[in-house]
Structures are given as C-alpha cells and as structure tokens.
Amino acid sequence: MRPRIVVESHPRSRALISASGKDVARFRRDLLRWYSEHRRDLPWRKTRDPYRIWLSEIMLQQTRVAAVLDHYRIFLERFPNVQAVAAASEEAVLAAWSGLGYYRRARMLHQSAKELVQEHGSRFPRSSKTLQMLPGIGRYTAAAIASIAFAEPVAVVDGNVERVLQRLMGINLTTPQIWQHAQALLASSQPGDFNQAMMELGATVCVPREPKCPECPLQKSCATRQSRQSADRTITMGRRAARPGRSTLGKGRQVKKEIWCQLNQRDGSIRLVQRPKKASLMPGMWELPQSSEPPRPMPASAHWRTFRHTITITDYTVHVLRGTAPLPHKDVKGKWIAIDRISQIPITGLTRKILKAGSII
Ligand code: SF4
Predict the structure, then answer these.
(1) Which residue from 166, 178, 222 has its CB within 8 A of the most atoms of ligand 1, so it is best to mutate?
(2) Do residue 167 and residue 313 come from a single domain?
(3) Does some domain include residue 210?
(4) How far is the CA of 167 from the centre of ligand 1 (A)?
(5) C-alpha distances in angstroms, 88 versus 52, 107, 308, 334?
(6) What is the pLDDT of residue 241?
(7) What is the number of domains present in the chain?
(8) Is 250 a domain residue?
(9) Is 57 an annotated catalytic residue?
(10) Highest mean pLDDT: which of 181-195, 231-245, 275-289?
(11) Ligand 1 center to residue 324 CA distance, Å?
(12) pTM for the full predicted model
C-alpha cells in the first residue's frame, strides 16, 4: 500500500506530499540521490556490523561527529566486538570511553553487551522491538540499528529528522505525528540509507539556524521553502524544531563555578581521587584532587594554568595548582597512580584535558 501523509488540520501539508504516492516517490529518489553524492565519509557508514553501528549511535548521542571519530577508532581497537565489551570490567569500558562524557552511555553499553552475550548468544536481535529491550537502547537507537544493519523498514527520528520534517510540513507536529510522518515517508527498500539521509540532511543542510535551502534536494517538497515567508520565520521555526530533547537542556541557564585542582606528580605517578561510586555525576571515575576553595594561604608559585570546562549546565573555571599546597577539602588524599596505568582507568574529561595540556598523557 502506498504511504499516505495527511495532517487534517493543515491544507498545506496535503499539497506537500500527495496521496497518490508520486510525490513521495520523487521525494525519496531526490533524497537518496543527494545522499549518495554528498554524504560525509564516516567510518560507521562503511559497515553493516550491528555492533559497530550500535557503538556509533551511542557515541553520537549528544556528541559531535568530530569528537566521536577518534574515540570510535580507539574503542574498537580495544573492544573489536560485543564479546570483548562483555568480557571487560566496567572500569575498562569507562576508561576507553574517557573524554566522551555522559558516562551512563558506556555503563549501559557494557550492560547490554553482557546481556547480548549471555542471553542472545552474542547475536543482535534483528528487530527494533526486541532491541529496545536491551539496557540503554531506546526507540531511536533500536530503529537505527535495525534499519541500517538488518534493513528493517523502520524510521528513525532524532533532532535532525524532527527539524527537517517540521520544516517540510511547514507546521508544528507533535512527537507522535513526527514518527508517523517519518515512517510514512521511509523508503522501505533502503531503510538504512533513507534514515541516514534524513539525519545527514538535517546535520549538514537543513541546519538549525540558517537552513541552506538552495542546496537542498527537497526544495520542491518543502512547505517552509515554498511559503516564501521571511527568513525570520524560517529561522524561528528551525529553532523550535531543533529541540532534540536533552541536548538543548540548560540553554540560557548555565551555572558558573570556580574550582581548584591539584596536579601533583612524583616518580612517574600522579595523585588522583576516585569519585564516590554513588555520585550522581561520573560515579567511580578518577580525577585530580579538587576543591571549591583555594588553599589558604596559596603560594604564588603554585598556580600553573586556568582552564574553562563545561559539564552539562555548569561552566567551570578551573585553576590548576602544581605542588603540594593543601586544598581545603577532606577527600583530597587520593592515590598515587602510575602514569602508564592511566589509560586503563576511567578518568574524567577535565582530568584528561589537564593531563594532556601538561603532556603527561
Ligand atoms: S528546503 Fe530548506 S527548510 Fe526545506 S528541508 Fe530543505 S533546507 Fe530545510
């Protein structure tokens, strides 16, 4: 049966894609052709291995492609398949994830890998419904894995797809309507390519602030483009549609904090502190001893460098001190960790940044 897209309340959306299916066919053809000619050359696009696709999808959540590339390669060198992840300790998985942030993703990945090995014989379920039963795999990730690795005809909706669809229709759609439209438009013979094409279009052409409509393969189908409304309206709509859930959380309500960290080295070791296992943020990870207050008195020679670092809604100004000036904090004793062991333990992104700046790792 031909897909049929009708949003009852708005006549323009009917003009966008006709019930006959001809325009839908043209839409798919234009999009897929554009994708085959313009897609970025990314490592996870060269494989149908569900493990590699899964890993890329998890890493790309709330993280830019450029930041993921190196981590993806390094993680795969260390854990080339799901069995390797399942056999590793959580600490080793977190260590390989170190620097990417949002460590809950790595913990869920580890749990899912164990479940895949123990309960599915190391084989990925082929349907998006079954994939969603694994820890940390939601509707989007399940659809991405199933469509790309197993060609299941299920649509994905992420922030990019949502924005493209809102603009194509020229109206505000509810979340269920967006999923419904995405599914109706899906090219079921090439679901993986189609889904990736929609996401790629949103990431590179139909971008949040100023969509590049003259470069867009869907201009003829796009209500926003055709409406010739002011650029302001286009941009406003894009901003509204750009909300990808958690990734814009906190915009406009960033909190500023100042902290002091101690970088203390001796005999090829460095002093690190492990965060409490029950901490709400980065539990169990290792970091430089830190305090919300400077040492008093603070020797002038102790200050080494100041860094800026952002974690979710907090912008930190981080003063790094060298030497042994005691920080006014009861938990700063820590442990001496050999520098050549640091790659095997999970360290926080801030600690990684500081140790790299000091050419320690
Ligand atoms: S024509 Fe413009 S607004 Fe419409 S989908 Fe393409 S880039 Fe987005």
Answers:
(1) 222
(2) no
(3) yes
(4) 6
(5) 17, 12, 33, 25
(6) 47
(7) 2
(8) no
(9) yes
(10) 181-195
(11) 57
(12) 0.74
